[in-house]
Amino acid sequence: MKRVSSLIVLLCAILHIASSLSDGLLPNGNFENGPKPSQLKGTKVTDPHAIPFWEISGFVEYIKSGQKQGDMVLVVPQGASAVRLGDEASIKTKISVTNGMFYSISFSATRTCAQEEKLNVSVTPNTEPKDFGVLPIQTVYSSDGWDSYSWGFLAQSNLIEIVIHNPGREKDPACGPLIDSVAIKALRKPTRQRGNMLKNGNFEEGPYIFPKTNWGVLIPPNIEDDHSPLPGWMIESIKAVKYIDSGHFGVPEGTRAVELVAGRESALAQIVKTIPGKTYDLIFSIGDAKNSCEGSMMVEASAGRGLIQVPYESKGAGGFKRAKLSFKAVSTRTRVRFLSTFYHMKSDNTGSLCGPVLDDVRLVSIRS
Ligand SMILES: *[C@@H]1O[C@H](CO)[C@@H](O)[C@H](O)[C@H]1NC(C)=O
Description:
Bound molecules: 2-acetamido-2-deoxy-beta-D-glucopyranose
Radius of gyration: 22 Å
Number of strands: 28
CATH topology of the largest domain: Jelly Rolls
Distance between the termini: 79 Å
CATH superfamily of the largest domain: Galactose-binding domain-like
Order of helices and strands: HEEEEEEEEEEEEEEEEEEEEEEEEEEEE
Helix content: under 10%
Low-confidence stretches: none
Structural class: mainly beta
CATH architecture of the largest domain: Sandwich
CATH class of the largest domain: Mainly Beta
């Protein structure tokens, strides 16, 4: 009997492993399977193993969509349930991955109190010191208060643990971000396509976007290229850029693009090998995401000592144009960089930030 039950446990473990290998939601990644009534005190989860596939620590609440907090109604975008992490609370889950491969985590979250809330995402095992992502949950980018966030990591084992932790120290334990869905995606090593010196220039490779959400996924600031959830690219400055899909946005080419949502505070960059003295063309598309982001936009592209400002008139209805920067390389490594000159807000009275879209970026050398 003992043998049989351990066999069943083993079988379940294998099935779990097999199912978590594919891209998408983690097992019970949207928290639809919740605690039993006996494992709840009000909304507070009292048993660390009450949420299937997850282990919790600290003040974690299990929130049903439509639940009230003060005069605010909490809305959950995917399914009916979410978890809220109080101060210093965390949730974690073990999943099977491929050792040595890069992955990105995507999760949907919203803050519930007035102050700035943060979430700390980390993975174990991890031999790199200080390798965690503290992501500000600002909800300034989407109309409905929810945003999705991404974070990239290198798997250092076939079995890893993902930890999401609220490092906040507020007085009210019932303050803290809500988390709704957690997904993972294996990232292919960025490659150069024929006729393009840039990696992932069309942004087709990137973090998981929840198919039923219409707000894309944010690529957090200060991201180095070796851990980027957007392979090949770095986010140089202090604010995020948004990764968008053609299912919900206007995308100039293919199915993915980047929306520069934070003005000069966020720049997208890639470093390429160049030959000093040689002339190169940087060709790219700029447009709008068909998301009521209207106005006179400007995208600034720079490479080496070359700089171009490309204006784009957005009616918020989609559309794009091609632009080109020719420059002479001054070094063996050239930094190609894009940013939006201005801030923009959606014309839907939500005050959410938006901006020009960048796609299909190519770098070619020109024979003299
Ligand atoms: C984030 O989490 C990691 C891993 O648990 C921890 O080592 C680190 O101190 C945390 N950082 C902050 C700012 O809370």
